[in-house]
Amino acid sequence: MLILGRVVQGFGAAALLPASLSLLLASYSKEKRSQVVALWGGIGALAVATGPSLGAVLITAFSWRAAFYVNLPVGLIAWLVGRRVLARTEGTGSTTSPDFPGVVLLSGALATLVLAISEGPSWGWSNARIIGAFIVAVVLAGAFLFRSRRHEEPVLDLRLFRARSFSVANSAALLYAMGFFRDAARQYSVLDERVALLDP
């Protein structure tokens, strides 16, 4: 049930991220959009930087269930404030379909990249399957970027990266996440070795 709950949270986060930016862009004029995007990116970077620490505090002070319950008041506050400050907008009537092949390309690129990184230590970094997974990830990512530059409704609007603040915030979040998960993986490896020594 815990794993299933985390899966549901993952789907919610995946739906929330693009929807939140869309709501903000629709609520502000073009002159203010760069500032809004910068603020949105900065808050995202702050969440990445503080989330693990705050989560550890909650779990230590209460239990692992707090990682789920904390979202209830946060979601309620966001919903109440959003109803007051976000403008209701109607659809533009666009007949352009979302880039569903782009979704498949991005999902495939991320899945093969995660597979290669996750199984590299056990299969061996020179293993043909690991090398193949990296190659597939690069090819799919390239195809995704190619479609994103030409599709009218791309999964990822690459023009956002023209905003320096947006690029810097996302780069900082990426570097922090790389360092955090590298350290977490190292600690997990050490813990796994200790458990193996204690296992008769």
Mind summarizing the main beta sheet? none
The coarse overall form would be globular
Uncertain segments of ≥5 residues (pLDDT<50)? none
Order of helices and strands: HHHHHHH
As a percent range, the share of strand residues is under 5%
Describe this structure in words.
With 200 residues, the protein is mainly α. 80% of the residues lie in helices and 0% in strands. The protein has helices at residues 2-27, 30-61, 66-69, 71-85, 100-123, 128-150, 164-198. Helix 5 (100-123) runs antiparallel to helix 6.
Could you name the key traits of this structure?
200 residues
Give a short synopsis of this structure.
With 200 residues, the protein is an all-alpha fold. It is 80% helix and 0% strand.
How are the SSEs ordered, and which strands pair?
Layout: H1 2-27, H2 30-61, H3 66-69, H4 71-85, H5 100-123, H6 128-150, H7 164-198
Helix pairs in contact: 2-7, 5-6
